[in-house]
Write a structure and sequence with these properties.
The protein is mainly alpha-helical and 485 residues long. Helices cover 34% and strands 6% of the residues. Strands 1-2-3-6-9-10 form a 6-stranded parallel β-sheet. The protein has a two-stranded antiparallel sheet with strand order 4-5. The protein has a two-stranded antiparallel ribbon with strand order 7-8. The chain is extended.
């Protein structure tokens, strides 16, 4: 049987006296009282305070005692804790991550590669791109958003494994997938990727795997927008896009003509042209980053625009100044008649600054407006360098060239003239002056268009940047200084 356990409630008291009685009995001797432990600790505390002369922020925390006992034991008062540092918060009131702030060079307009994600789209080598109105975009952090992001990050394998399934997705998901690939896939969107998503694999693969060729009119009949921002000039050219959307006509062998219409035989049927990939395209984004500006061509854009008379929304954010020969800006040739050197291209290095000559840019924009006469929305974010060409005039061959905001582009109701950048708190004065100059140009363009229409066209809304109070004060001081000089 198990043993019974007895809990002893009472025990024999210890034979040794507690330390409190020993200390109290020792108080009778004054020498021992002076050598008590509490007295020695108090002297050590006083000596440490006298030697430091001030409160040490790294001193060891001592336990606190009630004031009455502190007076009896002659313990000095516990030093007050150091005040807490105020919490660092940004302009929106959010707490800033702990640690030292990032260097100014990381947040400057020229070194945005190291900027945090919330500023990376606003400053530096990249500009802020606005989505096309009416274009479908998944909700952030939604299930579809995570799927498309994962597909774009793993696009190298997904375009091979799922090449027979990508083009069968719903149209709005396919267009959103192209945007995600342009944003998150480092090499960018190629013309083969665009063809794979919009029309499926090549004819050879369809025949090899016995898959029927899709009908493009049914497959892409409900596709109205195409956003290629970020890939144009990087992995995709305007010429490649034009050849894909509007392939060249294939020569078809014509049958031999008969001598008489009444002759027996089958009459030749009508010959159909090439099928358009996106027959109902009305919104197109060709936005680029400033780093890819040398790779785009206005000549190719004019060639593509001639095929898009029904386009209503166009985004060419970040495009360089209009020029047909941008690489010949500093080139000169000798005239065979006079022997003098003349400018080879239409725009020279001093055409805008000294001569105020915008003739080539005005002529190109005029040709573009002739092709895209159905535009209702135009995004020119990041094109502040050539904003004056939108309201200047130049002498042509027996005519005056200018951008017609009443006839050709009289249907435009929304014009975006943002700079694409954001001013930081520590922006230099040159950056503030440049930002203010772009804002003033956008305001002048708005007044010019409304004065040109004068009630004869649609009302236009020009969206532009606004200066902060501090930046406006700096810009006004510069204007006053320039006026006094």
């Amino acid at each position: 049987m198990p043993k019974k356990r007895h809990n002893n409630r009472y025990s024999k008291p210890p034979s040794v006296a507690p330390p409190s009685l020993t200390l109290s009995s020792s108080r009778a001797t004054p020498e021992q009282h002076e050598r008590s432990v509490n007295h020695l600790l108090a002297e050590l505390r006083r000596s440490s305070l006298n030697q430091n002369g001030a409160q040490n922020s790294f001193s060891v925390a001592t336990p606190t005692v009630p004031p009455s006992i502190r007076q009896i034991l002659q313990i000095p008062e516990t030093p007050a804790p150091t005040p807490r540092r105020p919490q660092r918060r940004d302009a929106d009131g959010r707490r800033i991550p702990p640690g030292p702030p990032p260097p100014r060079s990381w947040l400057s307009l020229a070194q945005s590669r190291h900027a945090p994600p919330d500023l990376k789209a606003n400053i530096g080598g990249q500009i802020q791109h606005w989505p096309l109105p009416g274009a479908y975009a998944p909700e952030p952090h939604s299930f579809l958003d995570q799927i498309l992001r994962r597909l774009a990050l793993d696009w190298e394998q997904q375009r091979d494994w799922n090449q027979f399934y990508l083009y069968t997705l719903p149209s709005h998901i396919r267009i959103a997938l192209l945007v995600y690939v342009s944003d998150f896939y480092e090499p960018g969107l190629s013309v083969k990727d665009l063809q794979l998503v919009l029309s499926g694999p090549t004819d050879e693969l369809l025949i090899e795997y016995e898959v029927d060729k899709p009908d493009l009119n049914k497959l892409n009949g409900d596709v109205f927008s195409l956003n290629l921002g970020g890939s144009i000039g990087k992995s995709l050219t305007i010429k490649d896009l034009k050849d894909l959307l509007y392939p060249s006509k294939v020569e078809i062998e014509q049958p031999d003509l008969q001598d008489s219409w009444d002759a027996p035989g089958d009459a030749p049927g009508p010959v159909s042209g090439p099928t358009r990939l996106l027959p109902n395209l009305t919104r197109l984004s060709l936005a680029i980053d400033p780093g890819n500006a040398p790779s785009v061509s206005w000549k190719q854009l004019l060639s593509l625009a001639s095929k898009l008379p029904t386009l209503t929304h166009l985004d060419i954010s970040g495009w360089p100044e209009p020029s047909l020969t941008p690489n010949a800006k500093f080139a000169k040739v000798a005239s065979p008649f006079t022997g003098r050197s003349v400018q080879y291209g239409g725009t020279g290095p001093y055409s805008h600054n000294l001569d105020s000559d915008w003739s080539e840019a005005i002529l190109i924009l005029k040709r573009l407006s002739k092709f895209l006469y159905s535009l209702e929305y135009l995004d020119l974010t990041g094109c502040g360098v050539w904003f004056p060409a939108l309201m200047k005039e130049s002498d042509g061959d027996f005519t005056l060239n200018f951008v017609d905001w009443v006839g050709d582009w009289g249907k435009i109701t929304t014009l975006k003239l943002f700079s694409g950048y954001a001013l930081a708190d520590d922006s230099s004065r040159d950056q503030i002056f440049q930002f203010a100059d772009w804002t003033e140009s956008a305001t002048a363009i708005e007044k010019h268009i409304r004065a040109q229409r004068a009630g004869r066209g649609r009302w236009i809304t020009v969206e532009k940047d606004t200066l902060t109070e501090s930046a406006r004060a700096i810009a006004e001081s510069q204007h006053l200084r320039g006026g006094l000089q």
